[in-house]
């Protein structure tokens, strides 16, 4: 369960930026959801991408194996002070009733600093810390003293090899983090993959997804996972020749009711989800999968532009799944960006669940929660006040005189 995430010097984020999921009313619990608002190009997607980048490094998605391998590094480039400075990530999370704090700073060539702490009580216990080329392991964990690593490796990876429990907890936490971007067609293609369709193999899960789609008024009565097959394709080799190779392809069939005269039911019609259904329906299918999986397994979902292609009423209902403790029993969390101001409603989201992202005049993104503003009452019309600019994070559009000149 995510409690807090901080980032410094990443993409449009120049200075320290912190997303807190701490439930101020029910501490030490964490909030089940949070939404990010902001103008286009304000950096709200970068807040989600930053946590994804931390996950990418922690899970070694780039397969860093050699001392010469480069780390994925994308600093704030609009300042001479930061363009070669380290990027820093820090996360606080809870796993099996224990709280952990883990972070590191790095550039393309090396890990500059790193630390791992666990809270057995109010005061944290340092498992290890690394700074200024000095590694300080916990004296009660002898295996840590044997660690020697290249400069572009995380001590976390080596601690995991030594079966250090807290290191494994960090890796498990990031394994439960799912980031999906719905901001373009490429994002949708990214989740049209066999691994998501495997979720339909369990009948109970498939039935829940079908019920989800039926309740969402898609017209779908059932879903069927078709047998996978291999499609032959060609690829160009280094010498210019073409080689045949096979790609696994799977399809999903949606079942609709078919009617005849006098609107009498006359059987069923079968559609190919990818070829015949609308973009909104395809998105609803994957939203259903993601939500069912998250709620059944207690995952953390990061969804960029979640509300794109979804009706505002439906988006509200989806958020309620995470906010309802009777449904969300395993601590699943939803963090998403949105342009749907219909959600700026304190009967749906509490003040500390609503965030605004805004860029300053120097191109740096800043984050503020609605709870940071004074004198915000539950009776306030948050959506109206947002459009009036009371919380910032809106575009200030000039006159498009270019069209008159043309």
Describe the global form: globular
| Major sheet: arrangement of strands | 2-1-4-5-6-7-8
Cα(first) to Cα(last) distance is 54 Å
Radius of gyration: 24 Å
As a percent range, the share of helical residues equals 25-40%
The major pleated sheet works out as: 7 strands, antiparallel
Low-confidence stretches: none
Strand content: 25-35%
**Which CATH top level class of the largest domain fits?**
Alpha Beta
User: How many independent structural domains?
Assistant: 2
Structural classification: alpha+beta
CATH architecture of the largest domain: 3-Layer(aba) Sandwich
Please write the string of helix (H) and strand (E) elements.
EEEHEEEEEHHEHHHEEEEEHHEHEEEHH
**Treating each run of at least 4 consecutive H or I residues as one helix, how many helices?**
11
What is the overall pLDDT average? 89
For this structure, the CATH topology of the largest domain is: Rossmann fold
Q: How many β strands by DSSP?
A: 18
Description:
This protein is an alpha+beta fold. It has 2 domains: 1-176 and 298-397, 3-Layer(aba) Sandwich (Rossmann fold), CATH 3.40.50; 194-297, no CATH class. Helix content is 25%, strand content 29%. It is built from 11 helices and 18 strands. The protein has helices at 44-58, 155-161, 165-175, 185-191, 194-197, 203-215, 273-276, 279-297, 312-323, 382-387, 401-405; strands at 2-8, 17-20, 33-38, 87-95, 98-106, 111-119, 125-131, 134-137, 177-181, 222-225, 229-236, 242-249, 252-259, 265-272, 300-304, 333-337, 354-359, 365-369. The strands form 4 sheets. The protein has a 7-stranded antiparallel β-sheet, covered by helices on one side. Strands 9-15-16-3-17-18 form a 6-stranded mixed β-sheet, sandwiched between helices. A 3-stranded antiparallel β-sheet has the order 10-13-14. Strand 1 and strand 2 (17-20) form a beta hairpin.
């Amino acid at each position: 369960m995510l409690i807090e995430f901080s980032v410094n010097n990443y993409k449009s984020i120049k200075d320290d930026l912190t997303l807190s999921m701490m439930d101020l009313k029910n501490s030490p619990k964490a909030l089940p959801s949070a939404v990010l608002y902001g103008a286009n190009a304000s950096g709200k997607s970068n807040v989600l991408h930053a946590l994804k980048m931390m996950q990418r490094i922690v899970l070694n998605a780039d397969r860093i194996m050699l001392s010469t391998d480069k780390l994925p590094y994308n600093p704030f480039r609009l300042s001479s002070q930061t363009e070669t400075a380290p990027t820093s990530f820090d996360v606080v999370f809870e796993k099996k009733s224990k709280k952990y704090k883990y972070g590191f700073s790095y550039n393309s060539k090396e890990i500059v600093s790193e630390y791992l702490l666990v809270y057995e009580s109010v005061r944290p216990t340092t498992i290890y810390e690394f700074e200024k080329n000095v590694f300080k392991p916990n004296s009660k964990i002898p295996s840590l003293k044997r660690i020697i690593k290249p400069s572009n490796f995380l001590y976390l990876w080596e601690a995991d090899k030594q079966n250090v429990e807290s290191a494994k907890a960090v890796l498990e936490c990031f394994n439960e983090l799912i980031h999906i971007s719905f901001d373009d067609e490429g994002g949708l293609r990214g989740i049209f993959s066999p691994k998501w369709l495997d979720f339909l193999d369990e009948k109970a899960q498939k039935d829940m997804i079908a019920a989800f789609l039926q309740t969402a008024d898609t017209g779908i009565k059932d879903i069927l996972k078709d047998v996978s097959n291999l499609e032959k394709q060609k690829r160009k080799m280094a010498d210019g020749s073409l080689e045949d190779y096979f790609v696994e392809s799977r399809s999903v069939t949606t079942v609709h009711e078919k009617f005849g005269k006098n609107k009498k039911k006359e059987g069923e019609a079968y559609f190919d989800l990818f070829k015949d259904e609308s973009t909104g329906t395809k998105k609803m299918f994957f939203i259903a999968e993601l939500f069912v999986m998250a709620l059944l397994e207690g995952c953390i979902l990061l969804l960029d532009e979640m509300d794109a292609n979804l009706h505002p009423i439906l988006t509200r209902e989806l958020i309620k799944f995470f906010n309802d403790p009777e449904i969300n029993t395993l601590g699943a969390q939803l963090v998403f960006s949105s342009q749907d101001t219909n959600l700026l409603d304190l009967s749906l989201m509490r003040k500390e669940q609503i965030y605004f992202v805004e860029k300053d005049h120097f191109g740096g993104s800043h984050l503020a929660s609605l709870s940071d503003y004074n004198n915000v009452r539950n009776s306030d019309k948050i959506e109206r006040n947002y459009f009036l600019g009371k919380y910032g994070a809106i575009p200030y559009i000039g006159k498009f005189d270019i069209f008159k000149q043309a």
